[in-house]
Amino acid sequence: MSENNPDELEKYRSQIDVLDRRLLDLLNERTAIVEQIGRVKQERKLGVYEPKREDQVYANILTHNHGPLPPDAVKRIFERIIDEMRTVQKNNMQAGGKTC
Fold first, then answer.
1. Using CB atoms within 10 A of its CB, is residue 85 exposed (0-12), middle (13-18) or buried (19+)?
2. Is there a contact between 50 and 37 (Cβ–Cβ < 8 Å)?
3. What is the rounded distance in angstroms from the CA atom of residue 63 to the CA atom of residue 79?
4. What residue spans define the domains of the chain?
5. What span, in angstroms and rounded, lies between the C-alpha atoms of 81 and 86?
6. Which region, left, alpha or beta, applies to residue 47 given φ > 0 means left and ψ of -120 to 50 means alpha?
7. Per the omega criterion (within 30 degrees of 0), is the bond before 70 cis?
8. Which of 2, 3, 8, 59 has a CA positioned 20 to 30 A from the CA of residue 99?
9. Which pTM value belongs to this model?
10. Do the Cβ atoms of 92 and 38 come closer than 8 Å?
11. What is the CATH architecture of 6-94?
């Protein structure tokens, strides 16, 4: 990267902005599915927390991670995503299954 080309930096930042919006769309799509899962769990009187399923999610993402993001970083990111998804399920269950 040329240090004398500020347009190059802006180009990369613009690409990041586009990717961030795509990530947001995917996270919201994932959340909508998690809400459906929460409704099924509620109907079946199952708990929100499923450690075996979470282990499956981690195994899936770590197996398919080909970098450059290191495995420990990927796991931390998905731990946070899963934690937020659990919160969505809990909140929806407390609200009687209603979604946002």
1. buried
2. no
3. 16
4. 6-94
5. 9
6. beta
7. no
8. 59
9. 0.85
10. yes
11. Up-down Bundle (1.20)
